[in-house]
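Lab notebook page, bench 4
Experiment: in silico fold of construct C2
Operator: M.H.
Input chain length: 252 residues
Purpose: comparison with the prior construct
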Amino acid sequence: MTELFLGLVQGITEFLPISSSGHIVVLSKIFNLENYGTDEITFLHLGTFFSILIYFSKDLYSIMKNNLLFFKYIKLITVGIIPAGLVGLFLPIEEIIDSSQYILLITGVSYLFLSILLRKTDLLSEGELKIENLNYKKSFIIGLAQSIALLPGISRSGITIATGIHLKLKKGEAVFFSMLLGIPTIFGAWLLTFIKNPIELNFSSVGPFLVAFISGLFAIKILLEITKKSKLKIFSYYCFFFGILSIIYYFI
């Protein structure tokens, strides 16, 4: 049941801007889940990877039918995933998450930063850019923001959406581009982890995977609605609370 609960947490928090890795780090420490590390967490990410493919299947199919648009999107996504790819390959992120004695403190501070960023983003007016109007410089900047989300407490969706909105993307477009960047990023993270340490497929792994997939579908819908209505402050307050909780738990 614990694994299923973490699958639910993963599915909801992967897309809502409240950091899935931050939640799993804090909850794992609070409930003393010492055997649930980044390998298992990454497998849960694979469930949310399929959530993106299914939820946006019509949009993805429409893009693929237009060769010029398809290759423009491919180039933008490629530029956007370079920073996170380099950080993931050359920095020992797993060791930091699994073994650092300061991880709760790092997570708490990251949550406070995210809280401020979401609140400031909520105050911005609607942008005018669509994804196909993005230049490669802006795509790379959004990619840099995504690389910061390798730290627990920094939501990948939250920081990429916020950065996109600051760069004048329409809010719905910022959400969609964040999801597009998530496709290779999430799958790549799972593939690298699986190559290093294959996980045996059984109910303890497949069950949480399915829960993460289903809950992820609902989370994407909620994220789109709340972002378009400029109500990210809801998540800002939540992240502030979770950041304080993480810091307090670190010191006690």
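Observations: DSSP finds twelve helices and no strands in the chain. The chain has a mean pLDDT of 87.
Next step: discuss at group meeting.
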